[in-house]
């Protein structure tokens, strides 16, 4: 059976704030809607499911994020995810320049969990606490800069 990753869904506190963050990083909004009804209840498994959604695509055309802000039922606030918690861990992006990505994140009040790491002079990596507590990883491939 062929299988293809469709998207990664992330519940957010404020969809406009999250869309602003990800579009500043270079993703493009390919659709926004409000969803509800029996089909949404059945698909998601929540009675009275009603949410605002936004679909964002990465510039390479392969990755898609689906952000959703619940109108009903009320969103459940959790403590921010830690890198070692079981479950949805993070969303990761390859970036041409990690310093630029971190400056964009900082404009949204989003800072690295610790700093920027160098992995064997192959990658610069940093985990950032994004909007709604989402962990976002930036990875800059250092081998692209070598001649």
Written description of the protein model:
With 147 residues, this protein is an alpha/beta fold. The protein folds into two domains: 8-72, 2,3-Dihydroxybiphenyl 1,2-Dioxygenase, domain 1 (Roll); 91-145, 2,3-Dihydroxybiphenyl 1,2-Dioxygenase, domain 1 (Roll). The chain has three helices and eight strands, in the order βαβαβββαβββ. The protein has a four-stranded mixed beta sheet, sandwiched between helices. It has a four-stranded mixed beta sheet with strand order 5-8-7-6, with helices on one face. It is globular, with a radius of gyration of 17 Å. The mean pLDDT is 93.
Task: Describe the SSE topology.
Blueprint: E1 8-11, H1 15-24, E2 28-36, H2 38-44, E3 50-57, E4 64-72, E5 91-94, H3 98-107, E6 117-119, E7 123-129, E8 135-141
Parallel strand pairs: 1-4, 5-8
Antiparallel strand pairs: 2-3, 3-4, 6-7, 7-8
Shape: globular
CATH-defined fold name of the largest domain: 2,3-Dihydroxybiphenyl 1,2-Dioxygenase, domain 1
Number of distinct beta strands: 8
CATH superfamily of the largest domain: 2,3-Dihydroxybiphenyl 1,2-Dioxygenase, domain 1
Unreliable segments (pLDDT under 50, ≥5 consecutive)?
none
By secondary-structure content and strand pairing, the structural class works out as alpha/beta
Tell me the series of helices and strands, N- to C-terminal.
Answer: EHEHEEEHEEE
Q: For the record, what CATH class of the largest domain applies?
A: Alpha Beta
Which architecture of the largest domain per CATH?
A: Roll
**What's the helix count?**
3
- Kindly provide the radius of gyration, computed on alpha-carbon positions and rounded to a whole number of angstroms: 17 Å
Any idea how many domains?
2
Tell me the span between the first and last alpha carbons.
Answer: 41 Å
Instruction: Report on the biggest sheet.
Output: 4 strands, mixed
Strands of the widest sheet, in order across it, are 1-4-3-2
**Percent strand:** 25-35%
């Amino acid at each position: 059976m062929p299988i293809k990753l469709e998207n990664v869904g992330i519940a957010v506190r404020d969809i406009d704030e999250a869309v602003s963050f990800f579009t500043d990083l270079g993703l493009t909004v390919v659709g926004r809607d409000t969803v509800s009804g029996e089909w949404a209840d059945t698909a998601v498994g929540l009675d009275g499911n009603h949410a605002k959604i936004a679909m964002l695509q990465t510039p390479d055309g392969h990755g898609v994020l689906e952000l959703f802000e619940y109108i009903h039922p009320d969103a459940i606030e959790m403590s921010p995810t830690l890198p070692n918690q079981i479950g949805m861990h993070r969303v990761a992006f390859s970036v041409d320049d990690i310093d630029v990505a971190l400056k964009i994140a900082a404009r949204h009040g989003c800072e690295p969990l610790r700093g920027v790491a160098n992995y064997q002079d192959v990658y610069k990596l940093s985990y950032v606490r994004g909007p709604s507590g989402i962990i976002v990883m930036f990875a800059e491939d250092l081998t692209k800069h070598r001649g």
